[in-house]
Design brief:
The structure holds 2 protein chains of 2 kinds. Chain A is 0% helix and 54% strand. Chain A starts with a strand and ends with a strand. The model of chain A has no long low-confidence stretch (mean pLDDT 93). Chain B is mainly β. In chain B, 0% of the residues lie in helices and 54% in strands. The mean pLDDT of chain B is 92. The chains are: A mainly beta, B mainly beta.
């Protein structure tokens, strides 16, 4: 089983839609969680952290469910510019590396 | 100024050749990494260095040899290239080795290696 698993998609949504991605992780001792965004043929960039209490940044909301070992990302009022691959990232207990999921592709269409 | 820069951006070469990718960061970070992103877009860590010291070596073949002449540079040399080495190689840096709090890596733009 992969350490971090995501639905690869693609999720094709119209502008203005709300879309949600989930990600599951296998190591219950994992301690930190993040979402990264990667545009086509570009490098990944940090989108937001995921806290136990949830985290909201504008149209983006990230949540963590430790009991079920999954994290989620909700995007409201999707924009064309949100089209990208969203990477779920987990830091294991030793904290020395980031473990990336394979990403979920989002395509927002007009 | 580019924070993390790597060269070359594209590299096309024959099987069996030896090639190098260079990486430099001007962020003053202590830790640098090499990640490999394969055709399925899976981004996997290969190496990490902290203040020129090798910290992580993730079951990478011996044909891959990282070198860190100083904490601002981390180069990757690959011997006897194979078809399966074709991928995008990303260099990255972070302020410190343990990233539980920020989780932020700064990536270079990637070096797309194609082995024919």
């Amino acid at each position: 089983r992969k350490e971090v698993e995501q639905d690869p998609g693609p999720f094709n949504v119209p502008e203005g839609a709300t879309v949600a991605f989930n990600c599951t992780y296998s190591n219950s001792a994992s301690q930190s969680f993040f979402w990264y965004r990667q545009d086509c043929r570009k490098e990944p960039k940090l989108l937001m952290s995921v806290y136990s209490s949830g985290n909201e940044d504008g149209r983006f909301t990230a949540q963590l469910n430790r009991a079920s070992q999954y994290i989620s990302l909700l995007i409201r009022d999707s924009k064309l510019s949100d089209s990208a691959t969203y990477l779920c990232v987990v830091i294991p207990l030793d904290g020395n590396k980031l473990v990336f999921g394979a990403g979920t592709i989002l395509r927002v269409k007009s | 100024d580019t924070a993390v820069s790597q060269t070359p951006k594209y590299l096309v070469t024959q099987m069996g050749n030896d090639k190098s990718i260079k990486c430099e960061q001007n962020l003053g970070h202590d830790t640098m990494y090499w990640y490999k992103q394969d055709s399925k877009k899976f981004l996997k860590i290969m190496f990490s260095y902290n203040n020129k010291e090798l910290i992580i070596n993730e079951t990478v073949p011996n044909r891959f040899s990282p070198k860190s002449p100083d904490k601002a540079h981390l180069n990757l040399h690959i011997n006897s290239l194979e078809l399966g080495d074709s991928a995008v190689y990303f260099c990255a840096s972070s302020q410190e080795l343990r990233q539980q709090n920020t989780g932020e890596l700064f990536f270079g733009e990637g070096s797309r290696l194609t082995v024919l």
